Amino acid sequence: MNELLLVQKRRERINKRLKILQNLVPNGTKVDISTMLEEAVQYVKFLQLQIKLLSSDELWMYSPLAFNGMNVWGLDLI
C-alpha cells in the first residue's frame, strides 16, 4: 500500500510540473504532452541562442533574426 501512495505522489508531482511547463511554453496548453515537450526543448534552445547572441559584441544585432530561424555566419538560428 505504501508503494502505491509513493507512485501516486510521484505522478501528482510530475503532472503539476508538466502544467507549469505547459504554461511557460508558447502554445503549450494547445497540444498533447509529447508535442509540448518537443516544443519546450526547441524553445529552450531558442532562448539559449538569444542569450548567446545578445551577450556577443559582434552578433547582438542578429538577435531578432534568430526569431525567424535565419542562418547568420554559419550559425543555425533556429
From TrEMBL:
SMART domains on file: HLH
Alphabetized SUPFAM superfamilies for the sequence: HLH, helix-loop-helix DNA-binding domain
Cellular component terms per the entry's GO annotation: nucleus
Localization per Swiss-Prot or TrEMBL: Nucleus
Major site of localization recorded for this protein: nucleus
Location of the BHLH domain: 1-47
Gene Ontology MF terms in the entry: DNA binding; DNA-binding transcription factor activity; protein dimerization activity
Keywords tagged on the record: DNA-binding, Nucleus, Transcription, Transcription regulation
Annotated CDD domains: bHLH_AtIND_like
Protein family: Belongs to the bHLH protein family.
The name this protein goes by in its record: Transcription factor bHLH84
Gene: BHLH84
